[in-house]
Structure formats: C-alpha cells, structure tokens
Amino acid sequence: MSQPPLVAHPHGATGADAGHPRGLYVLFFTEMWERFSYYGMRALLVLFMVDAVRHGGMGLSDRTATAIYGLYTAAVYLAALPGGWIADRFLGAQRAVWFGGIVIASGHFTLAVPSTQTFYLGLLLVVLGTGLLKPNVSAMVAELYPEGGARRDAGFSIFYMGINLGALLGPLACSALGEKVNWHYGFAAAGVGMVAGLAQYGFSGKQLGAAGRLPGHPEGARLRDWLLLAGLVLGVVTVTGLSLSGVLRIDAAALASAAKYVIAAVGAVYLASVFLFFDLNATEKRRVAAIVILLLASAMFWAGLEQAGSSLNLFAERYTQRAFLRVTIPTGWFQALAPLFVISLAPVTASLWMALARRNRDLSIPAKFAWGLLLLAGGFLVMAIASHFVAAGQKVWPTWLITTYLLHTLGELCLSPIGLSSVTKLAPKRLVGQLMGAWFLATSLGNLIAGLIAGSFSVDALHQMPQRYLQIVLTTAGTGLLLLIFARPIRKLMTEAGGTRSD
C-alpha cells in the first residue's frame, strides 16, 4: 500500500512512520486490548455457565446458557447505538472511549467475583462499556483521515489487524487460566487486558489531538437530550436492581425468544419509515431496498457465524479430541482460529478482489454476500458429517473444527467488510449513520438467534445433532443461492441514475 511522506495532520495528530497519524497506533492498541478482553471472556462464557457447580461453574442447562450468551452478544451491538449518541451529545469520542474502557474493566473484575449476582452485573457492565467504546474508537480512526481516500482505507486495514490480534491473543491467555486454574482467574485476566489498554490510551492519548473531542456548537446536548439520558440511566438501574434483588425474575430463554421479535419489529418499523417519511427519490428508494436485502442476509449470516462461541464451543469441549502428548488443549483456544485465519487471509482476499476488478470480473455485492453464506453453509456441512461420528459415541479430531472455522472465516471476509462498505456507499448521505445503526441492529438480531439455535442442541439427543446442522446448512445455502439467482436485479437496485455501478 502506498503512503505519503511524514506530514502534519489535522486535529493536531502529527505524522508517524509509514505516513499514518500517530493517533492511529494509540487506537490500534486500545482496540487490540479491548478485543483481547472481549474475546478472552467470550471464550469462557458458555463453558463457565454449563460447568457443574462443584467444579466452579454455574450448572446451567445448555438452553439457558446459550440464551444468556445470545442476549449478551446481541446487547453489545445494540448498546453501540446509544453509545454513539452519548459521545456525540455529551462526552465526545475521546472521553467516551476512556470511560467505556473503565466500565469494561470493572465488568471483567466483577465477573471475577464468584457470585451469581456479580456474574450478571459484570455482563451488564461489559455491555455498557463496550457500547461506549466500540463505535467511538472506530469513529476516531475515520476522523484522523479527514481527506478520506486510499490512505483512510489503509489506516482502517491496520486498525482491523489490531482487532484480530486482540481476538487471537485473548482466548489463548484467558482460556489457559480459566479452564486450567480457575474460571474467575480467566475473567480477571480479561480485566487486566482492558486495564493495559486504558494505561496506554491514557499515556498516549495526546497523540489523538482534537480527534474525538466534543465540538462546542449548537448540536451539543439540549434539555431533551439530558432528559432522555436520565430516562435511559434510570431504566437500566431500576431493571438491574429489581433483577439482582430477586424481585424481577427473568427466564433467559423466554426473554431471548421475545427479544428477537422486538428487534425485528423495531428494524422493520424504522426501515418502513425511511421509505414513507424521508422524502427519498427513486434512486435512493432502490438503494435503500438493496440495503434491506443485505441486512436480512447479514442477520442470517451472523446467526450461523456466532455459533462459534456457543454450540461450536460446546462441541470442542465435549466431542473433540483435545489431548495430545499428555497435554489437553484448552477448549477456548479454538476461538483463536478465526482471528488467526482473518489475519492470514484478509490480504489474500483483498488481492483477489483487486485482481478480479482489473480483469473486469469483479463479483457484485450480492454475489459476494451469496458466497459468504455458501461458505458458511459449507462449514456447517463439515459439522454435520463430524456429528455423525459423535452420534455414534466417538470423539472427533480437531481437524473438523479447524476446517469449519476456515470456511466460516472465508465467508466472513466475503460478507462482513463488504457489507459495512456497501451501507456507507448505498445509503443517502443524510441517512448514513442511521442505516449503519440498522446494520448493527441486524447483527444484533443474528447474534440473538445464534444463541437460540445453539440451545436446540441437546446432550440427551445426540442422534439429532446431524439433522440440526443440516437444517443450518439448508437455510444458509438456500439464502445464498437465492442471492446468486437474483444478483443481477439486486445489483440494478444499487445502480446510480445514469448507469454507474456502486459496487
């Protein structure tokens, strides 16, 4: 990638080697440590909940544990919406990231306390902190490159490697401690990772200059904003207090099942309002219609991909041969495979898209989505075959899971970065932020459904496991094939008036 020479940048961030603002590396390590903590804890979460109480776990059923997992991962994406709003109106991105990191670390250390109440409180704190940190650290990366263009793309590529480096290292460290020593030590290790990220952010934050600082203009917080914030805080505190005190009893599986309808309804009402009340012209309506199709495909994709932390994690724990040379590999280490594959294969897929484009054979956006879903289906087909051996009472070699994660990662590289880019290109400029929120809403819905699907796998009905995986294969492959069949008309929806392609 080509970079300009050492220069001074807007927002006070001076240039560093490789021509990128020094602030990029501050955000790189902040996000790396945050992802270390998030994915490190995520690797332990379901395993801890289903482990027997006498072994230090919670003794929950698979159905309840995976429903909690689905609610937790869905809430992380939903929290990004108010988190971005709070930064825009009250804190600015720089302070939102700082306070978000403090709340995340507090959540992980709360999880380290062996108590049912502290477990749920810790999860809530991690959700709230991630909602503050995650959207705003990415927004600051964009602010460091006000000129946009290829240099910003290169900056985001570097930042993306930080995400995956943290996601690779977190499970390795936290699983080794959590599974081999004590579950709560693993949660504490995640907190230590976030503290490391906060330390470097605090010491190096001046490199960010004015990026992410709240501007003093009339768009700041108004009375109605303060009232809305107070209502949000009061609602969270009230529900949390009632739940922890036992006054309000929540059935996680029932709540997750109901929540999927609520999230879907909210998304449907919002998207309908875009068509009805936002005065879109004909071209904008076609493009928003294309975004709706991509959102549905995205929700389907994440419902499958997020089996990694739930059903596939339990498959690794119970049915995979993990003992080699008298050493048992921690289950959570399998969670490091996906980021390892992303780091290895992201440059390869980027080069492939560029090579196809040079030959005028680049795949359209819907075709890339289709291949993402077909590769996801291929991974679950591998699991369906492996589960036949499990149903017969055997443990299988890790190569089955490794192959599945490889196919799923290739699918993710076809869909996830393409989807994020597509929404920003297709959305009307005045609605880019809102439709990006709709993208995260679809991701949240997919995560929630993933937890519900994982709960349908039962240790008491292993003979049904191949059929369960085949159902996932058929739904994801069917969706992918439909996208391939209708790729041309969907692509036309994305076309500019006058015939310029947007993909």
Topology:
Blueprint: H1 22-50, H2 62-91, H3 93-111, H4 116-143, H5 149-180, H6 183-204, H7 223-244, H8 252-277, H9 282-305, H10 311-319, E1 323-324, E2 327-328, H11 337-358, H12 365-391, H13 399-426, H14 432-454, H15 465-485, H16 487-493
Antiparallel strand pairs: 1-2
Helix pairs in contact: 1-2, 1-4, 1-5, 1-6, 2-3, 2-4, 2-8, 2-14, 3-4, 3-6, 5-6, 5-11, 8-14, 9-12, 9-13, 9-14, 9-15, 9-16, 11-13, 12-13, 12-15, 13-14
**Count the helices. How many?**
16
Q: Summarize the amount of helix as a percent range.
A: over 70%
In the predicted model, the low-confidence regions spanning at least 5 consecutive residues are 1-18, 497-503
Overall average pLDDT: 85
Question: How many discrete structural domains?
Answer: 2
